[in-house]
Amino acid sequence: MQIKDLTIDEFRQLIKTCIRETVEEIIDDRLDDDPDAILPQLRQSLLQQRERRQTGQTKTFSAAAALQALDLDDE
């Protein structure tokens, strides 16, 4: 099967799965180094990112906006 054969919902699920697996791999790799040192750093990094997002310091967009920008929306 090729990407062009996927429905929009299947493509969305594929992207979500890819992102989830990538994040899990990065966390696993970091935990292998030194879990006691990495966990506080990871927690702090996530809290800082959340703060930047909540205060408008980072630009976020929805999955629908991303699909539209890629001309993959079903409208």
Architecture blueprint of SSEs:
Elements: H1 8-33, H2 35-54, H3 63-69
Helix pairs in contact: 1-2
Question: What does this 3D model show about the protein?
Answer:
This protein is mainly alpha-helical and 75 residues long. It has one domain. Helices cover 71% and strands 0% of the residues. The radius of gyration is 17 Å and the shape is flat. The mean pLDDT is 82.
Q: Can you give the helix content as a percent range?
A: over 70%
Strand content: under 5%
Q: Got a strand count?
A: 0
User: Describe the biggest sheet?
Assistant: none
Supply the helix-strand structural class: mainly alpha
Count every helix, treating DSSP H or I runs of 4 or more residues as helices. Answer: 3
Output the radius of gyration. Answer: 17 Å
Query: What number is the mean pLDDT?
Result: 82
Termini gap:
24 Å
Shape: flat
SSE topology string: HHH
Unreliable residue runs:
none
Q: In short, what is this structure?
A:
The protein is mainly alpha-helical and 75 residues long. It has 3 helices and no strands. The chain is flat.
